[in-house]
Each structure stands twice: as C-alpha cells, then as structure tokens.
Input
Amino acid sequence: MARILLIDDDAHLAAPLASYFARFDCVLDSASRPSEGLAKLRAESYDAAILDVMLPEMDGFALCREIRKESDIPIVMLTARGDVMDRVVGLELGADDYLPKPFEPRELVARVQTILRRQRTAPAQPASAQRRVFEGLAIDLDKREVLRLGERVELTGTEFELLALLAGEPGKVFSRDDILNRLRGHEADLYTRAVDIVVSRLRKKLEPLDCIKTLRNAGYALAVGKG
Output
C-alpha cells in the first residue's frame, strides 16, 4: 500500500482526498504547513509527495527545492492557476508532474499511480544489463545509482528514467514525443517544453561530462563512448 504525503493548507481538502485515495489502496497523510511536511518527510517513509504552490511559510516552489536537497521522492505540484510558468518552474526545481486546480480527484490519483508505477515496475533486465558503463559514466539500473567520474549523482526519478532510456540505446535519437510517451505514461496537459527542462537539469548534474546531444528538430541522444 502506497503512502502519500499531501502538503496543502486547505483544511477542506485533506479529509475527502484521503477517503478517495483509500479506494485505490493509497494512504494519504497530510500537513497544512511546509515545516510540518518537512518534519514528516524526515521522520517517516513516503512513496510520493503532493505540494500545493500557495502555502504559508514558503511557497510550494521553495518547498520543492528544500525537499530536493534531501530526497528524490516523486513530487506532484498543484498549481492554482495552471499557469505554464508555474509548471515550468516546478519542473525546473525537480517536480515530476503537475496538476492545475481545481482538479478531479481521479486524475490526481492517476498521476500519482503513473509515477509510482514508473518507479516500481522497471522492465526486467538480464543481470549483465543491470550496469551500463560509459566513459566517465556508470549507471546501475538495479540500485538506481549513477556515478559521474566516480562520484555518485543524486537524480530525481524522472531524471534517472530519462538517462536510463537514452543509455539503453546509445546513439539513438529519441524525439520529445517518444520521451514523453515512454516516461510519463499519459498525454494530458503535456508539452514538449517539459522534456527540455528535464534534459537541462540532467545535463547540469552530469557536468563536466557532455554526453547528451541535441539534434535540432529531432530530439536527444546519449553520445558517449563505452567504458
């Protein structure tokens, strides 16, 4: 049974959402303030977090940044206006998905389930394929661990899945639509800018390696020699 933490100061939202999530074998815990949510994330084990953008103490973007300093837990952002800029900022900070308010509870459940399914049910790989080694880069699919020049790199779930996808077929060009369809699992409210943001985050974390190439009007490819 998945455990989800909702951080939202709307007192009328938590209880009905918890009841709805329970129908899908998910336990939804809640916190009304960022400080309370951070304390719960540090003290307990959760499978995903849902953050509202409009919060007391700090907004959801600042909260997402704080969480990412300590954890790669999947994060869904709730944006009050559904603004494109809200979505872009959230994704740049490391959120895995977003949903504009007001929303249907079933869609929120579906978004969370998609993220959890993507993390938990990776395709079976033969033992020899669990570790992919390139020049300066090593990817352990079983441990979900990435080493850059011998040092471990902390990636979010989406960043890791993108790198694993590209590393599965080095040199192959994946279009933005290919990446969206393979990694996100649904097409609602998706836009190609989201892929560019995740690629940009991943590139920055892999510096000084320059192994993700952009092919104009085509997509992205892993261009690095075998280790």
Summary: The two ends are 40 Å apart (CA to CA). Helices lie at 14-22, 34-43, 60-68, 84-92, 105-120, 157-168, 176-183, 193-206. The first strand starts at residue 2 and ends at 7. Confidence is low (pLDDT under 50) at residues 124-128, 185-190.
